[in-house]
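Q: What structure does this chain adopt?
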Amino acid sequence: MTSRHYEVPPQLEDLLLEFTVNVLVNQPENLATYAADYFTRLSQTSNKYGGVDKRSSVDGHTNNVDVGREDVGACSDQDDSMMSDDEAPPRNCTYRRKSVFAEAYNPEEDDEEAEKAVFPKSDEQRSRLSDAVQAILLFRALDPLQMQEVLDAMFERKVSPGENVIVQGDDGDNFYVIESGEYSIYVQMEGSAEPRKVGTYDNKGSFGELALMYNMPRAATITADSEGSLWAMDRTTFRRIVLKSAFKKRQMYEKLLESVPMLKDLESYERMNLADALVPRAFEDDELIIEQGDEADGMYFVEQGSVRIMRTEPGQEDKQVNVLEVGGYLGELALITKNPRAASAYAQGSVRLAFLDREAFERLLGPCMDVMKRKMENYEEELQKIFGSSVNISDVR
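A:
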């Protein structure tokens, strides 16, 4: 009989990972109701996870998986478990998954004074590790200090061909980031004599995170096909850094967004989604943030410090247009007009900004579009006063 193969939709792991972190941070009493509300809102406001592709994207690289993301030991279409690709048995099995209970974790009760894991590294090791974690989704929203914690807490593990990195059925101990090497994903199905190969990793990616988030065994075996190098982080440190940072980030950015007048018409859940999408950026005194003429990639909210807005007109010296303080925002007008930046922005002292990329802007700030368009008109009037000539609104940043 011909074996049936399944195609993994693109961004599936990103979608489920974001939902998982939201669940663990918010600790909803009724998970089914929370999930229904979460995915309904996401469907109404985003096409971020739509479309079909022939490849599965895992933390920024292609994972050649020929089966869909599956349940641990379960195969019912009504019984979905949130697993990463290293924990993905085929869906056509016939036995039922046993109940799995999440291990309680409360970010508010986490002891920040607890001793942190630190593994000494040479400059060369630290540089290699820093390169390896750059594209990992889980670390994307960490600030520089938190990233230093990540680098401190990870230790190197060398592997040889044929070595099992994790074994199906074992307790989750470490989260792994691949620096080099090729790895195969195997799942032992009930009633099968041999494990089935369901995917591969090729010199990039990460695995093992969801078994650490939940109190559940590994649902697949990862075997090294070549010599390779991995960076590992233990369960306790992983949960503290990833989950607690997500909790604190949301709290901090929700407070910031409440101070932005433009966002007062957003519903609380819309502000929450916006807070989750923001990424911290830090700049030193007089450092360039936005350059006039560049293509717009996103907008910024001022979290700490102040930002100087400068504009250059042909034949004239640079002139200061505005100074933005905490709660101010910049860069949004180029996203609306879809034109290059028409002004430059510089840090005034040490500055912390919250960055919102173009895709998230279009997905989350629709309700604020009228307010932003009115600001465009005010901005044109200010430029006319400063430069003494008419400025076409389509040129505004």
